[in-house]
Structure formats: C-alpha cells, structure tokens
Design goal:
With 447 residues, the chain is α+β, with helices and mostly antiparallel strands. Helix content is 23%, strand content 33%. It is globular, with a radius of gyration of 28 Å.
C-alpha cells in the first residue's frame, strides 16, 4: 500500500478535524466511494478508512483559504479518452490534471482503462473568481472492494492512498415493499441483478408481473452474499428463499440439480410459464377480434404481449424445438413441443437465439428468440399460443400440469432446511418489532 505520512498535529485538533472530515466525506466525495445498500446502518470503518477521513479533514481546513466550498463533480471516462482529459473535464487546469494522473500512476495502470470508469472529484473555485480551480479530492474504484483516493493536506500537496475494504460472507434476510419495480426494490435491499433474475423466474410460474404486482406489496428474500465492511454487496450467492403475494419458495438441492419448493415440499416449477417475455403487458386476448392489419373480424388464437423489438423471449417450459422459420402471417415462428401433448408457439420473432433449430432441447426460462414485428404485425410484440393435443387453448387459465412433490428422505431433509430459513425469518420479525417499539423504525436487512 502506498501511503504518505500525514502532518503531526495536536490530539485536540485532530479530533476536531476528524469530526469535520466525516461530514466532508459525505458532502464532497459523495457516497460513491463506499456506497451502502443498508439503510439506517452506519458503515463499519477500518483504520484505512479512518485515515482517509482524516485526510479529507485536512483538505477542508486547507481549502478554505482563498477557495470556495468544494463541489462534488462525477466524471465518466469516455471511449478513447485519456485519464488526464477526463480529470480536466471536471474543471481543473492542465497542471492539476497532470499531477493527479502522475500520482495515480504510482498505484494503478492509468493508460489501459475501460470506458465508463467513474471518477469522483471534488473541485474548489477561487473566491475571487480569478485563477484556476483546484482539485481538492479524487476517488475511483480499482476493484470490487478497493479504491484509490487523492486528497490535499495542510501543505497544499495531493496525497495518495489505496483503500481496501475487507470482505465477509453472510446470509441476508431482506424484507421490504415494492417501490418502483421489483428489480429496483430488491437492489436497494442488497440483491444483485442475478438474484433478481432468479426471483423473477421463480414467480413467473405463479404471478403475472404486469397485472398482479402493485406498489407497496411486501416481499422477502433470503440469500447469501459477500459484502464489504461498509455494507456494499460485492457478490451474491444462492437465493435461499423468496416470498411474494403469500407465495413462498424454498431452495432445495436434489442430487446435482437445484429446485425450489413451496412450504409443503411441492415443486413450484409450473409446467409452463405464465408470461414468456419479461416486463411485457397483454394487448390482445384469446378469442374473436378485428384484425389490426386485415381489417375484419376473425379468431385470435393466442395472446399478444407488447414488448420492444429485441426483447428476449423465454421458453415457456422444457421441451424440443418442433418448428422454426417463417410461417405465413406469424412471420418468423417458433414452436416447442413439451411433454403430455402440450406445445407452445411464438410469433412475429425478429431473430432466433444462437443454436435454436429443429430437434434442439430447450429448458424452461431459456432465451430462445427475440421480439419483433415480422409477418402481419403493426408493431413489435409477441404472439403466444398454447396447444393441447394439436388444438389451440386459451393461454390465460389453461389447466396445465403441476409440479412434483418431495417424499421420504428428501422431504425430511427439505423440512430441516426449511426450519433453518423459518428461524432466520422469525428472528428478523422479532428484531423489527423491537425496533418499532423503540421508535427506531424497521431495517430492511438483517444478518
């Protein structure tokens, strides 16, 4: 670790400046250095972070002389742009930018950087509005739990520090309400996109996300994750439990496969998905309708889902591709043959996923194609059909087979795992009640 010795000051002064520094960290460099996904829970600070805050306190004291209060300015590295040019875009002159990059080069590769790198800067303008702006602080991430900072000390020099947060593993109980989308709500509670995708796949068997979910609906998640000392999720592991609209899913490994079961040990994996395209809403139902292109009334033998061109189409269930290619007014068409005489069809496809051809086995939730407007279509959408023994049936309300149930030794092992998860949920509820009684509110996360 590269570290410069800070000036020696009295204990009383150091304490005062440290108190100032904590506030300045938030106001100047922002929360991006160590953002927390855990509301109401202060970050745990190791000695390295404390040293960084002390350095910012020195910055605050030095920056007042002749300069206005620093302003936090985030800058993203553009494609083909040098780091020096990006720092200059924050508002400082060539000499300041050159010095900053020279210092950063002692701890990182400042040449081979990816576009989109976020650089947080703190810039102070001269009070007289004459002269160049001054770089007061700079921070950027060099890894999931590491960062580099530059900040000024009393002598006006920029000091370099490498900050490394320790990682720890934990099982998290996330309990909250949907505000915005399920994805946004879960992310605020520490879930990664992979966890959210898994949740969406599970509930796709039971819930229509477009029609059934409402703002304020409660949901619970239990998942493993690796987090930094400041509470930021770096990596999420297995989703152990999910609950929404009273539907509960428990993870259980059967041999080499991982499946999810309800509280009674019944496999929640439905035979077919309710919605084979994420985030879409129904625009046309099964039955007679006036065709938007042909202009006359005829049977509409499926359900239309409005979605943007290129939106992934998911296989509604496990099966074998039976038909792929152009098919009249359906445009590019895909038909998947499932077991027990069930088929699903997908129309107006823009393109097929790699490897999709007749005879190929596909799995439920696998991306098989992408939404388009080929054939007789006024715009991009998915026309979705379900066939039973060669006859089309209404996809909404179709009585498709249900999942299997655990028995014997497997059921006994499942109950043991379920009891462990239920214990974590009960502990979370008790903690929330205690906090509510104390007037402190209820946290979203609990370990």
């Amino acid at each position: 670790m590269i570290q410069f010795k800070l000036p020696q000051i009295s204990i009383r002064c150091a304490q005062s400046l440290f108190a100032i520094g904590v506030g300045v960290v938030v106001l100047v460099l922002g929360a991006s250095l160590f953002p927390s996904h855990v509301p109401h829970e202060p970050p745990r600070l190791d000695p390295i972070v404390v040293a960084a805050q002390q350095s910012v306190a020195f910055t605050h004291a030095e920056a007042q002389g002749g300069f206005a209060q620093p302003t936090s300015i985030p800058v993203k590295l553009q494609r083909g742009e040098t780091l020096e040019a990006a720092v200059r875009r924050a508002g400082v002159g060539p000499s300041e930018a050159q010095l900053a990059v020279a210092l950063l080069s002692k701890a990182m590769d400042t040449v081979h950087l990816k576009a989109g790198l976020l650089i947080q800067t703190a810039i102070a303008q001269p009070r007289t509005e004459r002269g160049e702006a001054r770089l007061i602080g700079l921070s950027l991430r060099t890894g999931p739990a590491s960062a580099i900072t530059l900040s000024r000390s009393f002598d006006g020099a920029l000091r370099l520090r490498e900050l490394d947060e320790k990682l720890r593993e934990e099982t998290t109980v996330a309990d909250g309400a949907i505000q915005g989308s399920l994805y946004e709500s879960a992310e605020r509670m520490g879930a990664t996109p992979n966890i959210t995708v898994e949740v969406a796949k599970l509930f796709a068997h039971k819930i229509d996300f477009q029609r059934d979910l409402q703002p304020g609906d409660d949901f619970k998640l239990v998942f493993d994750r690796k987090i930094t000392e400041s509470g930021r999720t770096v990596e999420a592991g297995d989703l152990q439990y999910a609950e929404l609209h009273g539907v509960k899913f428990y993870r259980f490994a059967r041999g080499g496969d991982v499946e999810y079961f309800d509280e009674f040990g019944k496999n929640i994996k439905g035979f077919l998905l309710k919605t084979p395209v994420d985030g879409a809403h129904i625009t046309s139902l099964f039955g007679l309708r006036k065709h938007p292109v042909l202009g006359y009334t005829r049977a509409h033998q499926g359900v239309d889902f409005a979605a943007g061109s290129g939106t992934p189409i998911l296989a509604a269930g496990d099966g074998v591709v039976a038909q792929v290619g152009p098919w009249g007014g359906y445009g590019n068409w895909l038909r998947i043959r499932h077991s027990a005489g069930w088929d699903t069809g997908y129309g107006h496809i823009s393109r097929y996923a790699a490897g999709i051809r007749s005879g190929v086995h596909v799995h439920q939730g696998q991306v098989v194609a992408y939404v388009g407007s080929t054939g007789l279509a006024t715009g991009p959408h998915l026309h979705y059909e379900i066939w039973r023994n060669g006859a089309r049936v209404n996809p909404i309300g179709a009585k498709v087979p249900q999942g299997s149930e655990l028995v014997g030794v497997e059921l006994s092992h499942f109950k043991d795992q379920k009891a462990h998860i239920d214990g974590l949920l009960s502990k979370r509820t008790r903690q929330a009640l205690r906090l509510a009684d104390s007037g402190a509110g209820s946290p979203l996360l609990h370990r």
